[in-house]
Amino acid sequence: MRTAVKEEIVRLFYHGFNAVLILTCTVWGFSRWQALPESIPVHFGVSGVPDRWTGKGWELALIVLLPLIMTLFLYGMLALSKKYTGLINVPDKEKLLALPAERQEPFWNMLTELIAGLAATINIVFFSIMYSMVQVAFARQTGLSWMFFGALGLVFLFAIVYIVRLKKVIRECLS
C-alpha cells in the first residue's frame, strides 16, 4: 500500500502536469495563429484524414482553449461530487458514504488522483490533435499523427488501471 506522502506527490505531479500541459497547449496554439494558412482542418474522420476545414476564427480559438475547458470541467465535477455525493457511481456507494470521513479519505484521494490523471491524459490527446492540425495545415502530413493514436491508447490504459485501483481502494476502505 502506498503511503500518504507518495499519494500526495502523485496528485501534485498530475496537477502540475495539467497546468504545464494547459499552458503549453494555449501558448503553442496561439503562437502558431499568425503563421497558419487561412484554411485549417478542424475535424478528422475515423481514418485520421481531415474531413472539415475552417478559417482562423472562433473555432480555432475554441480548440486551443479546449484543454483548459475540459480540465476545469473535470475538476469542477470532482468538487461537485464531494459536495453532492449523488453524482458519483461507485460500487458499494452507500456503505462507503456511511463510513466516517477519515475512513473515506483514501477513496476521495484516489478519485482526485484519477480525475487529475485523466485530465492530463486527455490534455495530451488535445495537444496531439492541435499538433496534427498545424502539420496538416502546413501540408507536412496528411492526417492525424502517430502521437494522437498513442495518446488515445494512453487514455484507455490509464482509465483501466485507475478503475481497478479505485475498486481496490473502495474494498480497503470497507474492510
Topology of helices and strands:
Elements: H1 4-32, E1 40-44, E2 50-54, H2 58-83, H3 93-98, H4 101-137, H5 146-174
Antiparallel strand pairs: 1-2
Helix pairs in contact: 1-2, 1-4, 2-4, 4-5
Describe the protein.
This protein has 175 residues and is mainly alpha-helical. The protein has one domain (4-174). The protein is 73% helix and 6% strand. The protein has 5 helices and 2 strands. It has helices spanning 4-32, 58-83, 93-98, 101-137, 146-174; strands at 40-44, 50-54. It has a two-stranded antiparallel sheet with strand order 1-2. A hairpin with a 5-residue loop joins strand 1 and strand 2. It is elongated. The mean pLDDT is 90.
Mean pLDDT: 90
> What profile does the largest beta sheet have?
2 strands, antiparallel
Strand content: 5-15%
Q: Structural class, judged by helices and strands?
A: mainly alpha
Please give the order of strands in the largest beta sheet: 1-2
Cα distance spanning the termini:
14 Å
Number of strands: 2
Order of helices and strands: HEEHHHH
Compute the number of helices.
Answer: 5
Overall 3D shape: elongated
Helix content: over 70%
Any idea what the radius of gyration is? 19 Å
Tell me the count of domains: 1
Which residues form runs of ≥5 with pLDDT under 50? none
Oligomer: single chain
